[in-house]
Predict the structure.
Amino acid sequence: MFATNPFAALSTTIPPAVMQAYVVIMIVLVLAGTLFDVWHKGSARYFFDNWRKSKSKGSQQLGGGELVSIAVQTAVVDVLASGEFCNARRRVAHLLTMYGFLIYVLTTAVMVFAYPTPARPTPDIVTHLWWIGGLMVLVGGYWFWFFIRADVAAEGQSPFRIMQADLFILSLLASVTLGLIWAWLQSRGSAAAGVFFGLYIIATTALFGSVPWSKFAHMFFKPAAAFEKRVTYANGSRSNLPAPADKPEQFGSARELPRHY
């Protein structure tokens, strides 16, 4: 099962060109949805306005080398290590989901475009990574949904309350869960595989087609916002803010207050 490319097996009923066209359409939906989100919410304008204000208010000018250093810190701490999270459980759950999703999506594209039929055997490492990535998403996502997000009950909110912000995590979990179930059923020759494949396509389309209404696009905005924040601290434009109380954030920047998500 773990060594089988489910999309290659599917090529006997659905032409590879159709599967490849679907993947391209999903990519276009993400790009179009992100651009719409930028335009509708004014995210890019807000970012550049803040950038200009911070430069004018800053007590010192930053050189190219300093900006590169800040960009590297942003990439390593804020992006790769998710240093914005002060809660260790939330951080681990986020990293599992993020890296699992990247592995899952990339290996899906490799299997669909490079090994679309059984005539081109898929390397075991690719199929194994597809399963590992999917399982990482499920562990991180369900851990967050049932054991971390439920903490909102301590704030007087129902743990069963669903908001628009939950659209991304719910559609992601539905897509990956149904995808893995479909692949497992298909490997066993179950007649139910077709039903779960249809549900998988619906959930996946919802995931990539709902970018303007979900938090999907935030993964593109957050690095820019984190970079801008570090620059404002470095050039002194935020030097008039109160110092962090008690202890600095454990995992993020030592200069910013902990934030709970």
User: Anything to note?
Assistant: The two ends are 37 Å apart (CA to CA). The chain is about 65% helix and 0% strand. The chain has a mean pLDDT of 80.
